[in-house]
Fold each of these.
Amino acid sequence: MSAITHEHEHDHDHDHKPTGIKRWLFTTNHKDIGTMYLVFALLMFFIGGSMAMVIRLELFQPGMQFVEPQFFNQMTTVHGLIMVFGAVMPAFTGLANWMIPMMIGAPDMALPRMNNWSFWILPFAFLILLLSLFMPGGGPDFGWTFYAPLSTTYSNDSTALFVFSVHIMGISSIMGAINVIVTIWNMRAPGMTWMKMPLFVWTWFITAFLLIMVMPVLAGAVTMVLTDKYFGTSFFDAAGGGDPVLFQHIFWFFGHPEVYIMILPAFGIVSAIIPTFARKPLFGYASMVYATASIAVLSFLVWAHHMFTTGMPVFATLFFMYCTMLIAVPTGVKVFNWVATMWRGAMTFEVPMMFALAFIVLFTIGGFSGLMLAITPADFQYHDTYFVVAHFHYVLVSGAVFSIIAAAYYWLPKWTGYMYDERLGQLHFWCSLISVNLLFFPMHFVGLAGMPRRIPDYALQFADFNAFISVGGFLFGLSQLIFVWVIVKCARGGEKATAQVWEGAEGLEWQVPSPAPYHTFDTPPEVK
Amino acid sequence: MSKTYEKYYVPAQSPWPIVGAVALFCIAFGAGHYVIDMSKQQTGFGGWLLLLGLAILVFMLVGWFRNVIDESMSGLYSSQMDRSFRQGMSWFIVSEVMFFMAFFGALFYGRVIAMEWLGGASNNAMTFAILWPDFQPVWPLVKTPGGIETQAMPAWGLPAINTAILLISSVTLHFAHTGLEQNKRGQLKGMLFVTLLLGVIFLCLQGYEYVHAYRDLGLRLDSGFYGNTFYLLTGFHGLHVTLGALILFFVFLRVLKGHFTPEKHFAFQAGAWYWHFVDVVWVCLFFFVYVL
């Protein structure tokens, strides 16, 4: 058991990998842990995705066809929880694990054992969440935002399981974030100064800070839900002196920075990919760093824009409206810089670049609809309609998820040592691009026309658009099977990848061979 | 081990993380079922699973820390490792601060906004007039809009004594630290012991205060927003004092075994930081929960 006894043999063979199941259960290697995070995120992406398919199936036609309303509610809830905490966040953490030590010239993550712990908590947390669906009375059905009193007075028995599973997810996220932040702070190779760090490292540094600040607040929120439901407290009950709106304040104080937790690493990925395929250095590196930091600061001052219809005083709504709009400025800086990077570049359009380009366009659409939602009086109309669903799926699916897919294509050759199948990849891209817009774009229209979200039935005039949306949804789901095929094919073999992989790629991770050796930097490289 | 270990020590494989994950699974799944069964007044496996999870967690912590202490004592850790540990601990404390912020935030909101609005402030005149016209918006909220009555906990009795105890314990811990730095092992041992003793006294008095609140004041967890914030804030603080005292207890055992040098004593430092942190939380708590 003692780590010391193994140390001697370890010294001799840098690429010695432990074998069998123990390699994965007991590992302290950032690459193994990164791989596990990524595979887990992919699995969760499909589980959460199949729940979305159930939702779209039911909404294909008006009226009730396939599922009970209560089960529909469970599907919308668990779909959201799984996609946020099980797919997008672990995927980014997996990328951080794989890439950050390589990018900054570190031998591994700063706290390797804790790294493994924070991964292995996740499968168990989601096991609890999924098992709660099979409890008598069903699983959580109050939306992923678990607003009180839906989650307190009106929730079903299994709510305690939801609460504790969120608790341990939070523990996992906090430990993961501490690991990232300490690695970046303390483990950079000599010469890797702050303003030389790749933007993916910068964005993750700021993301980790956000995680440490807000995940404990989420823990507080679920704790209050637990005591309100089971122990007779009245945090969210006006009869006892509390206030249901208090829940929304606490939740969104976590929830809005959480939104940036799911997009800042995406900015980092796109800022890595665009320069590579434009064969030009990133335009405005320093402004990118400052923009990321200002988004992070602003993210703590905008939470109540989710709550414009709760009857807040006018002064408060104005404050949150202006702060929200202010975020468009640093975000605009980023979009401008990406476009300026491509200006007069020698561009090629491999799959990672295609997804990154789609990211810029579609994320910007999501950003603009976000600006529309930020306008308080307009939000009174948009609130709780499909317009909101369209908005956050544009930033989360064609934003965060597209960036994760782009990152996977970009770094797959570095991970596996083989090039992926470019033709299949392009097929995957075009199928995803077309279907994602079929899926989410019409949601703007039905939303503006007043179709409420999270309801299993709808008025007849929305029927055509919804049929259209559902077809888009099924196509998008099927398109992702191509992605799995590409990954499996690439892992099994193919054209050998060079160390640099991409002609225009720069950075430490492209100086080590592909696949990257099990222990990358035994002694730190010198960064000039 | 031919060369000196200035290179960063990456531990070989370790079974403890997965054991810890299983422990957390048992704790979360067990606690969930325990709470559900309790609310339905039935018995099930939840409580046992929770206890099993806690036992595995203790087993894991013992094994993991034994590994880490062995590695540390055999000189595998460089000063860079030491910085990693220190930064990790600091960020952990930041996350703990934010956990308390959630409850302090609830307290401020409930007291400054929700209570006033229930009393008709801002644009809520009709809410007040129609729903609970008899409600008096005064803090401490000893009578809820729904009519539950209780009594407030006075600040200038036991709570003030407890504040003094914790503040003194922070000072004694500081002297223990200076003792360690100046290699005065006697001062280190004595002051650390006094700190621990004060922590235990604090916890006992806190327990006594809870009994007094429940039995004599009728101040219960479910007696409205005042009771909610009182018990969750002081309760989570008490749990943190317990954890801090446990850390200091094991640090004390290591001191008795002759561990730690004036230069290298991360575990001591981490325990001390944690202790000062719970102390600061208590001072905020004393003002916002008891005095104001």
Amino acid sequence: MSDMDMEDDGSGVVKKFMFLNRKAPHGTVYALEGLEVVLITAAFDQDVSLVFTDDGVYQLMKGIDTKGIEVKDFSKTYRALDGYDIEKLYVDQASLDARGLTEDDLIVDVTVLSNDEMAKLMDEQDVVISF
Amino acid sequence: MQFGILINEGPYNHQASDSAYLFARNAIEKGHTVPRVFFYHDGVNNSTRMGEPPQDDRNVTTRWSKLAEEHGIDLVVCVAAALRRGIKDELLAPGFRISGLGQLVEMGIQYDRLVTFGD
């Protein structure tokens, strides 16, 4: 626990929440429902970071078209995140590399991190929720 | 220490709810508290009292109800995830209640640890 938590118990506490998005946007519901938790956490005025790793990097890929699989396309929500004051978006370099993707393939501005940088960022968090 | 628990998978198909139950029971036995368990994604399916597993198997839902009654655990089912899957108030087993995602965020803010069980 950080010093701030010791001093301020109850409302007004701001914790560092990291959401780890590890799964492809479609095929399972984790990405869609996970995004709901991200928005609510921001509404609670918490310090929110989003990480995209493993197949989670596909959530940010340009050119997603869900017509053929007849499910909702929620990729626009990622572009609206700054409207919720969610501006810390991180992507795992190795996950991009493994899938032949670069930053240019993504629909939003992100910070690309190495494994070591990601580990350090994770270590700084109070709460890590993985979807 | 206060533990919040998040369960993201349904019963029987996945071990998440079983593991979470064993974690909660053992944490309480060791003197920790588990004030709330939050059910999300298919985890909301843990809350229905309509399930009837075979006699020689554990009943995941009634186990949670019993633990909640004994130790005052708040079993919260996400309303949006529940409605999507046909889980309604009238189907809930004892000890479960339907509420919003804010209850999950609150666990992260207020408790010492938030532990996720799922894939």
Amino acid sequence: MFAHNSVIILLTLLIALMASIMPLPLSVDAFRPDWVLIVLMYWCMALPGRVNIITAWVMGFLLDVLLGSVLGVHAAAMAVAVYIMAENFQKIRNFSIWQQALITGVLAALYHLVVFWLQRFLIDATFLPSYLYPVITTIILWPWVFYLLRKVRRHFSIK
Amino acid sequence: MNPIFNHGPSPQHRLVLVLFCSALLIFFDHKMASFESLRGYLQSLVSPLQYLANTPKQAMTWASENITTRRQLMAENQQYRLNELQFHEQAMQLDIIKQENERLRSLLASPLRSEIKKMVAEILAVDSDPYSHQVVINRGAGDGVYEGQPVLDALGIVGQILHVGQTNSRVLLITDISHAVPVRVQRNGLRLLASGSGQIDRLNHNFVPQSADIQTGDILVTSGLGGKYPEGYPVSEVSFVSTDDSREFVRVYSTPIAQIDRLRYLLLLSEKEPVRIFAPKNQQLKDDIKKSQSLKNKDVKVVD
């Protein structure tokens, strides 16, 4: 993991984890983008040999611990979303940036729905449209994260 | 060099493996609750991340606290002086009333109320998970925090401790969907149950009969019945009572009195000894009176 500057990947993932638990005002909180998912998506698309489903699951597990939800819920949802990316990374790489953003949005929606279904199964949560607000911010955020992480990848020549 | 064909297990196999792991975790964590001690360790393990995530907010608060004008400080100071005067006078009265109450209680042979120890804690992080209402505070097992400990802010009940780590712990808020507090109406002593609605500004009250005397504006305080929360702390104010006679029960909603969406400092309560439910016998009664007299001299300690 330490060869080819792969430690940078870990660092970006840790920053994403931090961003996803950072305290925000209540009005903005519902729109918090899925930082961890976006970063995982990028690395899985760019370097599928380094970041794969297992990494996604471990990140989801850490998110479970940080958010205090039932252990394994976010881990499973994250693994499912990244699985679809890992299966289709060669196609998605060749799409234009906005098409990629839309696909990320769809996967983020899937992620939130899987989390919701599991929560519904466990604690009888009821669906609120606000659970899907992060999808919008995730779509808007994708191009910026994509260019930033590509720059990081090329600068540190992570393979 | 990147190989064209990936080595190792295929994505399908990996997915099945991790989903199986997830299912096991969910089963053991949710149905069997067998990870309580492990969660403590995990909580301690990720606490550096939480402290780091909290630094921008702390920096902002530090800046806003340090960049205040002299005039502002003077005005604030004056306000505090006035407040202190008022509170001091109230505290004096409270002392007298407390003594009187204890004496009357011991005359009636009803259980004495034990002194409550308090500890101040600061909020570290607020969860972004919309399915649960929890906050993380900067006190843990090292400070004497225990599971189920009641948590207050300056205005009313906030929640109780859910998981304890070494240096931080997690508070379940009263608005969480899995939480309920036994309360009573302050005006007439009517007993109710205040369960969380999953919305930050609403508590639900189920199974209130049509004949119940309850109206909007009633203050609900803890009844002390569950044994978790001490008696008499304000919880919420009734905000809505339906007048639909065709239903079996009245729909009652209330708004929490504690400012759940803008918490910063919290108070953790702990009883020095568990409250005795049964009336003490004669021999015990004398001990209790002695004890209460020695307790009177000590003020309520605030451990910070």
Amino acid sequence: MDTDQLIRTLAADNAHQSRPVGLVLMLALLAAAPVSLLMFFSELGIRPDVMTAMRNPFFDLKFAVTLALAISATAVSLHLSRPEASLRGFGWWLLVPAGILVAGISGEMMMPQRTPMMTRLVGKNSMACMTAIPEMALPLLAAALYGLRQGAPARPAVAGAVAGLLSAGLAATVYASHCTDDSPLFVATWYTIATALVAAIGALVGAKVLRY
Amino acid sequence: MREREDEWTGLMRSAIAGDSAAYHRLLKAVTPVLRAAARRGLARAGQPVDQSEDIVQDILLAVHLKRHTWDANAPFAPWLFAIARNKLIDALRRRGRRIFVNIDDFAEVLPGEAAEETASAGEVAAQLQTLPARQRDVLQSIAVDNASIKDTAAKFSMTEGAVRVALHRGLSSLTAKLRDR
């Protein structure tokens, strides 16, 4: 086929307009959310003392961190879905959740504590945290990758990793309502490990499926 | 150069608003620039430049299928060159080379550079043969026989809507086959 013929064919297809990446991403995440929620409610469920826990600022802080991660990773992944985009000037968004977490840790340090630091860090739910967050994140990760496939990321592995952060952030938001460990030290350790795991999966899969 | 790029941006805006003729003109206008850049990239990598047309067609297909990722408020050229660069790197990597592609390969083409006649390439044509019969027939009718969507619909007793769907699906799977080969 010569190039003029190809151009003519492409022009004939001009009427076909694809949906914006952001819209497809949102719809895909909405479709996957019930799967993750089903996993959550059938295996974990919200902690029974949630009403009292909500009066603890460190319980609330967990949601601030995980939601900040989910929101900033969504913004960054949409940015990265464009062919000419790079992380430069945009990557700092991902530091927002880390900043909130650091503020939380310093806040906790300044308060008198009944339990020693290591006990708070190790917590009681580290294994559950490290398995539940990645498990609940996987359906969301698949959805995020599907959505981002509509885009044209210059660096598929990086975009995949950010999709991993996005889905881990959402999964961790749900998980946080189950977990009774509220210390920011626990969050900084185990949530981070779980999130890094999902980001690594996202990078590996993204490198394959996000090429255009 | 600046004028040329402003013209491209204007054409692409019209194209997205539904003007197929503007879209056709835009693709015709960018092709010589893409071709010159693909040749330069191949030459620099010590590869035969006669493969450049495969790369040009690869780029055009990607531009077409990803044009919704272009922000209509931004200039068109940087977006185009980003896609072109990506496809050129892909093509060189597939030929077993790790090459540094300079973005200026695209930008430095002078407006007066010989606008070459159209050229043939083998890879798109070869993958076309592997498509489902319906998609292949529709693509061939429009590409090779220069038939309109309406004429193609009449020829194969399809509705125009079905022709449009087959056309778009054909182009999408063609691109997927080229990518995953």
